[in-house]
Amino acid sequence: MPSLPAHPPSTEGPAPLHLPDLPDPSELLTGARVVCLPLVTPFRGVSAREALLFEGPHGWGEFAPFAEYDDVEASRWLASAIEAAWRPAVPAVREVVPVNATVPAVPPAEVAGVLARFDGCTTAKVKVAHAGQHLADDVARVAEVRSVLGPRGLIRVDANGAWDVDQAHRALGALAPFDLEYAEQPCATVDELVDLRVALARSGIEVPVAADESVRRATDPLRVARAGAADLVVIKVAPLGGVRAGLELAQRLAGDHGLPVVISSALDTSVGLSRGVALAAALPELPHACGLGTVALLAGDVTTDPLRAGGGVVPVRAVRPDAELLARWQASPQRRRWWLDRTARCLDLLAGRGPAGSPGPQPRSSPRCPR
Prior knowledge:
Elements lengths: L24 H5 L3 E11 L2 E11 L2 E5 L7 H16 L9 E3 L2 E3 L7 H6 L6 E5 L7 H15 L4 E5 L6 H11 L4 E5 L5 H14 L5 E3 L1 H4 L6 H5 L4 E5 H4 L2 H15 L3 E4 L5 H13 L30 E3 L7 H6 L4 H18 L21
Parallel strand pairs: 5-6, 6-7, 7-8, 8-9, 9-10, 10-11
Antiparallel strand pairs: 1-2, 2-3, 4-12
Helix pairs in contact: 2-13, 5-6, 10-11
């Protein structure tokens, strides 16, 4: 294994964006719709997904940062939504994008049912290191996924940074016999990822390491590459500020550092998901299935023609919400006001008008969606 370069101390959180040609607040917020969509199965402690959607001259944008993100971090998600609604689409080089199934931290008996919702997908991302569970639970879940997919299926695991280096080393050693494609964010920090890759190499455990949170929530998303902390990188459009920002980062990771990328999503509606699909469609090379089939995890959507996997792929196309579904899933007046206020603050930050970082992180909401 090549020697790994030294790297500076990490800086928490992304830097704020300041963008030209932003829409007027009244233009953006008038007519904005806030929806609350229940999940089929709770996912990372979330049982419902809220999002604010608005229409611009080039289509619809979706603003849906998680509730605990502060305004500086959330402002990047707003930049992505504004790009979708106010700028033309980036040219695509493919008409469909291959996607993976996503298996939450469910018991083995539920695995087959989850995979059945992802039509034709031969790659599965399996959540591991779930709070309150143990390594034996992860092993049993991954074993069942392997049984359902068969020997030719691809399995990747995602710990969302929950393990320390020793825990990750032990867990990946136990999971490696299931022939993992890679392990996504096994540890939280760049330093830990570097140490883990060294430990895996010394032990002869051949599991590639992918970085996710270490890129999308970092001030310097290229630090992972310079530090030699990952074999590939998972990127999401909204946290980076849009398709163009994601495309630039992907090209730098691949061209300057030789790191392939996997495009993923963050429990978006089909409107938000279409932005990740647009990025994946614009990449010159797409060596891995993308985490863009997650509409299957939602019990509802804002369009009558969701971006749902069929034959293991999703189509590359714009999505327009349906008025009746927007009304069906509209959030409560109190949640609508919360999202409008948050959007206005983030728009001020993008325009350089607001105090950086205010307010502080909000508690994760657990809204009850309309039925």
